[in-house]
């Protein structure tokens, strides 16, 4: 039996554009049947660190907790109701990190209620931070919705529930009382210097199911001093000017890494800090201090983190120390190559810093993942040209997924960008119904860019580039088919299909070059503004991609893949 059950819902596409998600269509058993080479493809699934932090905190207070992450699992409604009936918890928490979790969160909530109408249910997570009131209004089946950092809120709730006291005074909640929703005010923030380590339920589950656990997530800091208009963090509840960026001690973080290596064989860490580099001297000392602690203990680890280009970390010495400590890649909040866009974002940095950062990363051999917003509510054609020029000048198109540069700012409720959209366009959400739909309709604002040519070029870019991105996702499967067929042929003494593999590799390697041509063509046409621009853009961009496929693969991509399927046999495909 557990005192608390915490759940991370499955991700379900809502109809909003979604490029950066973790949708995993197979379950753990199917995963285990995959060829090991293909498993890499699924290892992008990360723990839900928020839930892990709450589970760790509650356990340190003496409570028994079950934390369940439904990525890669597809339990039926009955399995969820059975779980609740078996565990008989006094508290159930459902986490919503972003929009993709909400549809399944509503299903889970209904299953929990079905199992036990009186169990206390709270919803929380990053998505709730500025949607808590809305969610409380639209999903009254939950007892409350928590906003902001949740450790002390949930601890307070557990204390009240255990003692049979009224919980409505616990800070950090929205709930119904006397016929309307009310709030108990901003949450209290945990002291990160004393906080328990995140619990590792997902890794324990994977280890138990013989799924390898080389990857884990943790954090070294929370918050950020900056005020970007598209971001949540500047208005985080409970945060004041004096505590905008809070840290864990480097020694504590490195102790945790040693533990993870001992228990789970961790080789790679995601640092989920908002801004790993903090600000100025404090940020420098914290990050470099952390790296030096890793080096002092001689740990072999690789990690990824995210920071601003104006942190002291964009400095040759700092980067060298971080790289030696294991920083394999970092997401830098560049956002744009157009100074006027950076100004509108209130980014507080300069495009020149972005250039310097790109150069330094290249020289130091660290993989750069640029945080990038190509289009936002005020973008002009000139600014798109500036973005393109920057991508070329900084030579940043060569990345894991070059077409991810084609991104549009999401105006999330709670951000300055959302507030500034005076005349939102109604979103289309054909596949979502009920309370999830009601929340999604208000959780972000869709907008139309004043210059129609920018809107047209965006529409064509995003449509055609989504097809390219889908093909890139499919690549490992096609490659695996070729490998399997080649091995089978070899046993029969027939020639292998390795040349096809080289063509596929060439296709992936050339995507950065294709991206630049793709952006150029779109902008030239938009500048020219011929009749029926939208249609022309789509047709010509498709023709460009088609010509690329023919040059590199010898055929249009769908024809190439169909040929491989034929050559390798449908049976291999099904396997
Ligand atoms: C890692 C990450 C991802 C990973 C997620 C993988 C994973 N499983 O971790 C990936 C890369 C997939 C991702 C994708 C996206 N992300 Co993201 N991501 C993050 C990031 C950097 C870290 C999350 C984290 O672990 N935080 C640390 C933990 C400790 O904090 P936490 O999760 O908020 O949890 C605390 C509270 O929320 C609360 N809590 C959490 N769960 C629960 C449950 C209960 C019951 C209660 C009571 C409380 C509670 O208590 C926790 C402890 O204090 C955050 C920024 C940040 N630093 O938080 C953005 C963030 C969550 N992402 C965000 C966004 C917008 C996205 C994308 C839409 C970006 C994009 N344009 O593609 C996509 C979403 C997919 C899509 N729709 O296409 C926003 C979410 C805002 C929102 N309103 O939805 C954030 C907050 C960034 C930001 N500053 O705007 N993201
Ligand atoms: S620097 Fe990053 S975390 Fe900080 S406010 Fe800007 S977008 Fe948010």
Describe this structure in words.
It is a single chain. The radius of gyration is 25 Å and the shape is globular. By secondary structure, the protein is of the alpha/beta class. Helix 6 links the parallel strand 4 (120-124) and strand 5 (144-146). Mean pLDDT is 92; it is low at 570-575. Helix 18 runs antiparallel to helix 20 (533-553) and helix 19 packs antiparallel against helix 20 (533-553). It has a seven-stranded mixed sheet with strand order 2-1-3-4-5-6-7, sandwiched between helices. A five-stranded parallel sheet has the order 8-11-12-13-14. A two-stranded antiparallel ribbon has the order 9-10. It has helices at residues 28-33, 36-42, 49-60, 77-87, 102-115, 132-138, 151-163, 201-208, 250-264, 280-297, 316-325, 339-344, 351-364, 381-394, 416-420, 434-443, 452-491, 498-509, 511-528, 533-553, 557-568, 570-574, and strands spanning 4-8, 65-69, 91-95, 120-124, 144-146, 173-177, 180-183, 215-218, 221-223, 245-247, 268-271, 302-307, 327-335, 367-372, 411-412, 444-445. Helix content is 48%, strand content 12%. The protein starts with a strand and ends with a helix. The chain folds into three domains: 4-183, Response regulator (Rossmann fold), CATH 3.40.50; 207-447, pyruvate-formate lyase- activating enzyme (Alpha-Beta Horseshoe); 460-574, no CATH class. The longest helix is centred in the last third of the chain and has 40 residues, at 452-491. It contains 22 helices and 16 strands. Bound molecules: cobalamin and iron/sulfur cluster (SF4). The site of cobalamin (B12) has 40 residues, from helix 3, strand 3, strand 4 and helix 7. InterPro entries: Aldolase_TIM, BchE-like, Cobalamin-bd, Cobalamin-bd_sf, Elp3/MiaA/NifB-like_rSAM, Methyltransferase_Class_B, rSAM, rSAM_sf. Pfam families: B12-binding, Radical_SAM. This is Radical SAM protein. Its cofactor is [4Fe-4S] cluster. One of its GO terms (molecular function) is metal ion binding.
